[in-house]
Amino acid sequence: MRIIGGKFGRRRFNPPANNWPTRPTTDYAKEALYNILQNRIDFEETKMLDLFGGTGNHCYEFVSRGSTDVTYVDSFGKCIAFVRKTAKELDVENNLTVLKSDVFRFIKSADEQYDFIFADPPYHLKTLNQLPDLILDNGLLATDGILVIEHDQQNSFEEHKRFVDVRKYGGCIFSFFE
After folding, report:
1. 112-153 pLDDT per residue, tens
2. Domains observed in the chain
3. What is the pTM for the complete model shown?
4. From 13, 36, 63, 148, which residue has the greatest number of CB atoms within 10 Å?
């Protein structure tokens, strides 16, 4: 895993992911996603939320590019510990809020809005198709905000009323909502 751009660009991380319930976004797909985002958002002004944050891959990318308000949510203790350790190593603990929580409970109880939300749930999650509505109906996405859900070909969101774009990179698919 590596950070693609920004002040920590090209820095590599090796999470001790033996038996972890994670599937980090490939560098190829992540680089393509951030090339798109580079032209759509101002990272320094963006309040970011990473749901099912896993290794924290996307959080580091946002902080590296200048975001000072990043929130990470996951329920797996070893991932949480790794993200906290990495944030300390990068000296970005003041920019990254790490929350240990069930993502669905967090969505229902959150009282903040985010300019960019990235969700990378387990591809086999039975309620994955409900995720856009849960996030959008609970008001987590700010006006003019962007929601990106990473998924595989088993799910399609192209009929969703707030769907705007899809990008496919091998078995990784990013669906965009506004």
Report:
1. 999 999 999 987 888 899 999 999 999 999 999 999 999 999
2. 45-177 (3.40.50.150)
3. 0.94
4. 63
